[in-house]
UniProtKB/TrEMBL annotation:
InterPro entries reported in the protein's UniProt record: Cytidylate_Kinase-2, P-loop_NTPase
MF terms (GO), sorted A to Z: kinase activity
Domain of life: Bacteria
Protein name: Adenylate kinase
């Protein structure tokens, strides 16, 4: 477990899991949204794909996303482990709602100095709407990839509940990192 992709829908806890794995395994963690959005107005880094490819060329890394379309296959081809947080809507929706509400009310700065605003809540790409609308499609795509012969060498660790993931995480430590 040296090249880890933490996959799931918005609000599943990918970043939290990725940070915890990074700490426990001493493997560098890279926040996908922070690499993607680099400036005001949700500006996308023009060098995003090249930056991700450079990081993914390293011997050890953790990303908290199953990948934006332009880097998705690259990450799946280079990962040795996918930690899939496959939680239902009843789990992710309260999480993403609380997070977005907190970010909106506190005007918390996130990726590239951007903020979630009340006006953003009415956009189709707002995290709350995105999590609801994309839940089934994301689950289907991750399942398809997990069973795709191209990615047969990837170890997929799937969790259907946060308690399962928390139990597993307690068993993970530096000795878990291998050169497989």
């Amino acid at each position: 477990m040296r090249r880890i992709l933490v996959a799931g829908i918005t609000g599943a806890g990918k970043s939290t899991m990725a940070r915890a794995l990074s700490t426990r395994l001493a493997v560098p963690y890279h926040e996908m949204d922070a690499l993607h959005f680099t400036g005001p107005g949700w500006a996308v880094d023009g060098e995003f794909a090249a930056r991700v490819e450079g990081i993914a060329s390293a011997p050890a890394w953790i990303f908290d996303s199953y990948g934006y379309p332009e880097v998705r296959d690259l990450l799946w081809e280079r990962a040795d482990t996918v930690v899939w947080l496959d939680y239902g809507r009843r789990i992710v929706m309260p999480r993403v709602l609380r997070r977005s509400l907190r970010r909106t009310l506190t005007r918390e700065r996130i990726f590239g100095g951007n903020r979630e605003t009340l006006a953003n809540w009415f956009r189709r790409d707002h995290p709350v709407w995105w999590a609801w609308a994309q839940h089934g499609a994301r689950r289907t795509d991750i399942h398809r990839r997990a069973h795709d012969p191209r990615f047969a060498l990837i170890r997929v660790i799937r969790f259907a509940a946060p308690q399962e993931a928390a139990r597993w995480l307690r068993t993970v430590g530096p000795e878990t990192v291998t050169d497989e």
